[in-house]
Amino acid sequence: MYDYFNGKLVFKAPTHVILEVDGIGYHIHISLTTYSQIKDQENCKLYVSFQVREDAHTLYGFATESERHLFNHLISVSGIGPNTGRMMLSSSTPEELHTAIVNGQVALIQKIKGIGPKTAQRLILELQDKLKKQGDDVLLPLPVAKQSVPEEALAALVMLGFPKNQVEKVLSAIVQAEPNLTVEQMIKLALKKL
């Protein structure tokens, strides 16, 4: 239905943005990878995936067409919904995920929150051949974000469904051990410990 939205970023968070297009503000869920690419921009173009359920119509936005393409592949697998797909693209880069699926690295995929051994195997079984046919050059390297704050990481993890007090404990331990991490690195470390 929608291919992309191009407009002004009215609000940015690690999990969602509000993009104003011709006077209409769209609430669009994003991955951490997309956030790292658009967080310094005032205006941007987001490629969208419009997901319709009985109780909700939800937009998921991506900075690149290749990330959206991988997201659509992920959610085509039984047992992986849009939120899990977004979690997967937030836990590792599209390149890492693509490589793990193509190479059949079950253990690597299993490390992502919400993905058990059966789901990881099903994901590889259903997507390995499709992604191999596309080739490795489908996903281009993405820039790494420069700065962040623990509050952004906390907000993102709470929005992903983790209990606030548990997230605060994990983040405080991470900040004490490594105080100079970006929000993306902090969230990825926290996802491994939650």
UniProtKB/TrEMBL annotation:
Gene3D superfamilies: 5' to 3' exonuclease, C-terminal subdomain, DNA helicase RuvA subunit, C-terminal domain, Nucleic acid-binding proteins. Residues 151-194 are annotated as: Domain III. InterPro entries: DNA_helicase_Holl-junc_RuvA_I, Hlx-hairpin-Hlx_DNA-bd_motif, NA-bd_OB-fold, RuvA, RuvA_2-like, RuvA_C, RuvA_C_sf. Has three domains with a flexible linker between the domains II and III and assumes an 'L' shape. Domain III is highly mobile and contacts RuvB. Homotetramer. Forms an RuvA(8)-RuvB(12)-Holliday junction (HJ) complex. HJ DNA is sandwiched between 2 RuvA tetramers; dsDNA enters through RuvA and exits via RuvB. An RuvB hexamer assembles on each DNA strand where it exits the tetramer. Each RuvB hexamer is contacted by two RuvA subunits (via domain III) on 2 adjacent RuvB subunits; this complex drives branch migration. In the full resolvosome a probable DNA-RuvA(4)-RuvB(12)-RuvC(2) complex forms which resolves the HJ. The keyword Transcription regulation does not apply. Residues 72-91, 107-126 form the Helix-hairpin-helix DNA-binding motif class domain. This is Holliday junction branch migration complex subunit RuvA. Belongs to the RuvA family. Its main location: cytoplasm. It is found in: Cytoplasm. The RuvA-RuvB-RuvC complex processes Holliday junction (HJ) DNA during genetic recombination and DNA repair, while the RuvA-RuvB complex plays an important role in the rescue of blocked DNA replication forks via replication fork reversal (RFR). RuvA specifically binds to HJ cruciform DNA, conferring on it an open structure. The RuvB hexamer acts as an ATP-dependent pump, pulling dsDNA into and through the RuvAB complex. HJ branch migration allows RuvC to scan DNA until it finds its consensus sequence, where it cleaves and resolves the cruciform DNA. It comes from the Bacteria. The gene is ruvA. Keywords: Cytoplasm, DNA damage, DNA recombination, DNA repair, DNA-binding.
